[in-house]
Design brief:
By secondary structure, the chain is α/β, with parallel strands linked by helices. It has 19 helices and eleven strands. This is Protease.
């Protein structure tokens, strides 16, 4: 639990411009066949040393660490692909051994950006049982995430009471202090975070696993990573599936608005479902239920619940749980009960359990190697911010932000009275940072690869179906679309039809017809 005080416009501006380490030039990725190729040879000839996963290192469930079919390892990649001698990174990996005749490895990315793939695969092992008959299923923590040199900004920035709108010196002082803290806490990896570099890492992993082609299953942000790989390494593309397709063209502000709108629609659908069922704590009127939800969040932000040890449970904690619970329609009954306990008895424990069960990874974990001793609690959010900012070339200056902060607050509030604030915050954090790469927006298009599968879900609260269509058109004739008419974020884990079609493609190369669909389940 955490306390998240309401932010004034000045405080939001101060926080928005916080964490401004000077980034290396990421405008163009290093050419795989360029002058650095010889220097990269040592990374492409390495072998991964697999061993039993260690519970005191990876902070994984005991049943995983004792599973003889599960092993952990790491791969070494250059910090800077343009200058491979500048330093190296160790990327954490987990492998579930194929249970049948192995045809290669299947690398999996669960999204984020900022999602830890080692912990993610440990939690989803049973979901890959069928496809695991033909593949070693491999999860990895991307650079800057989880056990792979995790970035941090030292926790949530604290509001500076002296940083008022008319006191530019106080705002700038806070920016400098936070920037120094972010740079200090993150270490050398921070300037080299971004999907362009993670895609290069993905190719090193492919080679280290002994695969001539990349077989890949990416969810949410993982689809952006997969799309970038198809553009950078078209001749190395094997069987690739992108589920919950991300945008390649919209900037961080537009993505934030889409996310706020999508989550609000999912919440409205949940409340409509709840009020049609007996015992719904919000009653029988969905409109009143929407007002009650906003009031609940506002009241808890103003007067947080306090535990015996002094921790606080705020309205933004409710928003955080909603943001994950609404990803899966199967979670709606449990969410209804947890909200009922909160409203009726002031008991947030059921909501907290939901948030913990649905989180990307354990809050803290030890690191197997390198200077970091544990994963910072803010790693997921710090990595999400760093990657999204690095992938976006748009970067208005501080003066423009100061002029537009009121407009942005109003626009996000109109998009979602519940999620607007939380979706605006990471958008603002990009302002003032060095410009990101334009490679994704300009060059990831019209790829010349074997056909690969894109899955879009009509009721997806995070990646709208139109992004699937737009990305498919942008990538060209190699992209085949599967239309999942259900709800929830991504389709593989929530739709048997989607799972069957994805597995059939990955295992047997049975590609659905472009535009075919799966009915809502």
């Amino acid at each position: 639990m955490r306390s998240t005080p309401a932010l004034t416009a000045a405080a939001v501006l101060a926080l928005a411009l916080a964490g401004l380490p000077v980034a290396a030039d990421q405008a163009a990725p290093a050419d795989p066949s360029g002058p650095a190729k010889a220097d990269l040879r040592r990374f492409y000839t390495q072998k991964i040393k697999w061993a039993a996963c260690k519970p005191d290192v990876q902070n994984l469930p005991e049943n995983i660490t004792k599973d003889k079919d599960v092993s952990c390892g790491k791969v070494t990649v250059p910090l800077d692909y343009a200058k491979p001698g500048r330093g190296t990174l160790g990327l954490a990996m987990m492998k579930i051994k194929a249970s049948g005749d192995k045809r290669g490895s299947l690398l999996v990315n669960f999204g984020g950006p900022g999602g830890a793939g080692v912990a993610g695969l440990a939690g989803a092992k049973k979901d890959f049982g069928y496809v695991g008959k033909g593949y070693d299923v491999v999860g990895f923590d991307p650079r800057g995430v989880g056990l792979s040199e995790p970035v941090s900004c030292g926790g949530e920035p604290e509001e500076d009471p002296e940083a008022a709108a008319d006191d530019a010196a106080a705002v700038l002082r806070q920016l400098r202090e936070t920037a120094a803290k972010c740079k200090k806490e993150s270490g050398p990896v921070l300037p080299y975070i971004g999907t362009v570099n993670v895609s290069r890492d993905l190719d090193v992993m492919r080679q280290a696993l002994g695969d001539k082609k990349l077989n890949y299953l990416g969810f949410s942000y993982g689809t952006r990573l997969g799309a970038v790989y198809t553009a950078q390494f078209p001749k190395k593309v094997g069987r690739v599936v992108l589920d919950g397709v991300d945008t390649l063209t919209e900037n961080v502000e537009e993505q934030g608005l889409v996310g706020a709108e999508g989550r609000q629609t999912a919440l409205d659908n949940f409340l409509l479902w709840c009020t049609k069922n007996a015992g719904c704590v919000f009653g029988e009127d969905s409109r009143n239920a929407r007002h009650a939800m906003v009031k609940l969040i506002d009241d808890l932000d103003a007067y947080p619940l306090k535990s015996m040890d002094g921790q606080e449970f705020t309205g933004q904690d409710v928003v955080s749980v909603l943001g994950t619970a609404l990803y899966s329609r199967q979670a709606w009954p449990a969410l209804s009960q947890a909200l009922g306990a909160l409203l009726a008895d002031g008991d947030p424990r059921a909501l907290l359990r939901m948030g913990g069960a649905m989180g990307d990874a354990p809050g803290r974990a030890r690191v197997a190697a390198g200077g970091r001793t544990e994963v910072p609690e803010d790693n997921s959010s710090a990595a999400l911010m760093a990657v999204n900012c690095a992938d976006d070339p748009d970067r208005p200056g501080a003066k423009r932000v100061e002029k537009e902060i009121s407009r942005l607050e109003t626009e996000f509030e109109e998009a979602s009275p519940v999620f607007g604030r939380s979706m605006l915050f990471p958008v603002l954090l990009c302002f003032g940072r060095p410009a990101g790469t334009d490679y994704i927006r300009d060059d990831v298009r019209d790829v010349d690869t074997p056909k690969f599968l894109l899955v879009g879900t009509r009721g997806d609260p995070a990646t709208p179906y139109r992004w699937t269509v737009e990305t498919a058109e942008r990538l060209g004739s190699s992209a085949v679309v599967l239309d999942n008419k259900g709800d929830g974020h991504t389709g593989y884990f929530g739709s048997k039809c989607v799972k069957d079609k994805v597995d059939a493609f990955l295992l047997y190369k049975e590609m659905p017809k472009n535009g075919s669909s799966c009915a809502a389940e």
